Backbone:
């Protein structure tokens, strides 16, 4: 029995408003989709990867996968909604014990997250990665009036991967399809609605953001610029050994100065001590 990662890349990225869907935009010089593939390819926990893609981008996906990602056993065509794409991925899983469902729009997933999720799913068969909300969250009615303010320490922001025992999530998705459920935005919801299992949350990372709007990529470019600036600073520091020497020299002088001051104090202290005694 295998552990399979389903990497979702069949969305249109409407909110990003770019010509290409966001999973093909460049991050650090590589298509965003590559980032998640690299992490799951490298994970010792994952045996196989299934990529879910829009028919239009199948060739582009094949080019990305070719030669680099040996765990990718199939590229399947997704559907209109995210849950349609997940269902297509689930149907393509063969001989699967645990399935990791991950959005390619979360390129900052890392090995620690995968490992934590894997340890959790062995105990709790339905798990979703997330983080406690940093901001206060309000539930509002359709006119924008606040109905409720849930206690902040009970509010989590949900991420992916969401990890399940395969038979359980497959059954939940079959139930969803039978009931033609709508408004499903993540896989945990499918399990919750099916009533077949509780869902356990697992710590993800505040870095594991989803790229949704252009603002999210602004952070990416700022990080790239900062990394460049840090590198430039490090280079400059390395090319200024004289400055360092001067600073060290000053440090030595200060140390000597302090010792001399200490001697002075001892002297004074002695006299003062005698004074105080008398
Ligand atoms: N996704 C998918 N199939 C769909 C819709 C979404 O595989 N029919 C994938 C996306 O490619 C993305 C992830 O699900 O990796 C999360 O979805 P979201 O951030 O909503 O991406 P998009 O649907 O592409 O963006 P938008 O909602 O702005 O159109
Ligand atoms: Mg969407």
Residues:
């Amino acid at each position: 029995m295998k552990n399979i990662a389903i990497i979702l890349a069949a969305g249109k990225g409407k909110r990003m408003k770019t010509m290409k869907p966001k999973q093909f935009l460049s991050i650090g010089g590589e298509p965003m989709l590559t980032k998640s593939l690299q992490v799951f390819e490298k994970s010792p926990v994952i045996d196989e990867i299934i990529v879910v893609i829009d028919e239009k981008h199948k060739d582009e996906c094949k080019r990305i996968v070719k030669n680099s990602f040996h765990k990718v056993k199939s590229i399947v065509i997704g559907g209109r909604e995210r849950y349609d794409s997940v269902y297509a991925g689930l149907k393509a899983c063969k001989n699967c014990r645990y399935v990791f469902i991950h959005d390619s729009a979360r390129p900052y997933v890392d090995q620690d997250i995968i490992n934590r999720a894997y340890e959790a799913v062995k105990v709790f068969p339905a798990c979703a990665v997330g983080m406690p909300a940093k901001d206060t969250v309000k539930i509002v009615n359709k006119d924008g009036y606040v109905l409720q303010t849930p206690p902040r320490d009970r509010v989590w922001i949900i991420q992916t991967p969401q990890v399940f025992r395969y038979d359980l999530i497959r059954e939940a998705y079959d139930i969803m399809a039978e009931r033609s459920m709508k408004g499903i935005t993540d896989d945990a919801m499918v399990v919750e609605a099916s009533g077949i299992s509780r869902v356990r949350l697992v710590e993800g990372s505040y870095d594991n953001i989803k790229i949704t709007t252009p603002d999210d990529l602004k952070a990416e470019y700022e990080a790239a610029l900062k990394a460049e600036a840090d590198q430039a600073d490090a280079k400059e520091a390395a090319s200024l050994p004289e400055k360092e020497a001067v600073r060290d020299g000053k440090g030595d002088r200060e140390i000597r100065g302090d010792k001399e001051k200490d001697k002075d104090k001892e002297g004074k202290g002695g006299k003062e001590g005698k004074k105080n005694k008398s």
The two ends are 89 Å apart (CA to CA). The helical segments are 32-42, 58-65, 82-92, 111-121, 166-179, 187-194, 214-238, 241-277. The first strand starts at residue 2 and ends at 9. The mean pLDDT is 88.
